[in-house]
User: What shape does this take?
Amino acid sequence: MGKSNILFYKKINTPFAVVCHDAGGASQIAAMLRVLGHKPKWVFAVGPALKIFQRELPNIEVQSELSGFKNISAIITGSGWGSNIEHQARQEAKQAGVRSITVLDHWANYKERFKRNGDTVLPDELWVVDIFAEALARSSFPDVSVVRVTDFLTELELKRIDSISESTPSRLLYLLEPVRSDWGQSEPGEFQALRYFLEKWSFLKFPVATEIKLRLHPSEDREKYAAFIDKNRQLPVSYSAGTLSEDISAARWVAGCQTYAMTLALAAGRPVYSTLPPWAPPKVLPHPGIQYLREMAFA
Assistant: This one.
């Protein structure tokens, strides 16, 4: 057992609870619990996180309200900004004298994730899953304990992803995600990036029969992109229908802006392209191997 796992056992072998909303944190925390076999005293999950816990840990009951701080010693939350739930949980934990741990499942906007309406509530401890996030977290929060734990989510998902073989379809998987910025262009960044990618499609010289499968982010639905897809019927674009591991297994190439799933695809041996256009902010994924369209000769 590695040092990270020992830390997990020593610190969380006690009554603890979990609070999540966004998909990234929920997926990482659910993977930790699944691999290590820990059972929380209670779980409060809403939004995308609810489906993840119901799928990955069906034997753990998810309660319908945020309560029960008197019967726990620690709380683990995600670090999403899709709602105020995790922020509220950290507030209540601090008031109740309960140790608060937050899992950082990404590499961007660390400080902003702990602010709501000008109020900053930091956890007692931050958990990260790689050396890149560890360095960023330590520089962003010098007064908060930072612990690097095993990336259980990637370990689990890689076991589920097939290697590329002759039977792998000539398919590119495009990972959609809400960018939460218009980059000064009066249009959500995710649409700008997708359009930029489709405009550069012919320059990438994929085989003629290659199809493009769009994978929705857990917080999105098809209606969001319906009008955009209707206007781009000249390209073989359709939606994927599988789990993340199934979708990556059925693709030879993967593209997206800067989502965690791109790093998973990279670890699974897929060529990965970032579709951030030239006018978008600097890249945040620190992983070597990702190819940036805007840095290519045709850009």
